[in-house]
Automatic annotation (TrEMBL):
Name of the protein described by the UniProt record: Adenosine/AMP deaminase domain
Gene3D superfamilies: Metal-dependent hydrolases
Reactions it catalyzes: N(6)-methyl-AMP + H2O + H(+) = IMP + methylamine
Family the entry assigns: Belongs to the metallo-dependent hydrolases superfamily. Adenosine and AMP deaminases family.
Organism: Ostreococcus tauri (Marine green alga)
Amino acid sequence: RQKVRCDSPRALFLHACARAMTSTRGCVRGVELHAHVGGCVRPETLRELARERGFESKCDEVLERAFSCAAANSSPGETLKRCFDVFAIAHAACDTPSAIRRVCAECVEDFRADGCAYVELRTTPKDLVGANGEFKMTKRSYTEAACAGLADAGGLGDGSDGRCVARLVLSIDRGRDDTKEKAMETVQLAAEFMHRGVVGVDLSGAPHKGSWELYEDALKEARQLGLGIVLHCGEVVDTKDEQAKMIAFKPERLGHCVYTVRDDDLYGRLLASKIPVELCLTSNVMTRSCDSVSEHHAKKLLRDGAPICFCTDDTWVFNTTLRREYAIACDAFGLTMNDIRDMAIRAMNFALCDEHVKIKVIEQM
Ligand code: 6MZ
């Protein structure tokens, strides 16, 4: 985190690139397809919510601890695991429907301010029980609040007014949703809230938890109900069997695919499937899934003409923005602003929203 924050010449250079990216002369409208609400909370909002709940000082401490283990050369898997401790802070701060509504609205505003034409946010509906055993929040009230947040930010338009369009994907969390029933409840809520901006279902969370078999039925049901499917795939080593099943399932998109690209057999299947891959450069480097951006698997995917899009994953946790990710990609892979614009337009074709919305947004872009 410190490395990303510091005022080194490289950090300043990236900042300048990112600024140029959306300057009036070189305007590139971004398309964000992989951003978790809980990882994109505004730091000042998080601090305010944490203060109200009496644990403000913990925010920085948890972030520092999570990423200091990367500096201490712990294994990549360990760094990724620590990352999930960081999300626990956001979950503790966003423990009411009104907090969820606020952070969802702010996420849309922030991506809009970052130059996005379209943002597909994802979040996990959660049941939360209060100290007296009563429900503080249910998956249903969570989903309602998230949809209301998108509406508050004016994100539910169809793109014809030129404003940033926002849609929601409901995540099944591999840690939290540990039964078939819990996964199915999320799918049913997603279907019920399609008229309020929900367009799909995601499988995410700590990748060493749960199993493909636990979620497959719920994901099949989601597809049956007309929802798009996006899956986190190949974030950790030794999950070859699961990754092969995910590719065979033919989701609308796959996220990360770090170890998928490293395995010749899986990589062949991925390329043949033509499934678009969401790539999160800073996230993968900070969680030590990749040693550096220049060694990121984006390079191989670009070389082979695979369908990809650059995304942020978690702007708060990894201290990044979509503009910044685009600037990093230009710097690391020799892409031009025109390449990025073309890629963003192509990414819009991978979005889960209705076709007429895609057309309107692409017109704007
Ligand atoms: C897998 C991730 C993730 O749902 O509370 N999440 N899952 N891999 C990642 N790579 C770093 N980054 C975030 O947002 C936070 C949740 O998103 C998932 C985790 O389940 C995390 O708890 P919501 O809005």
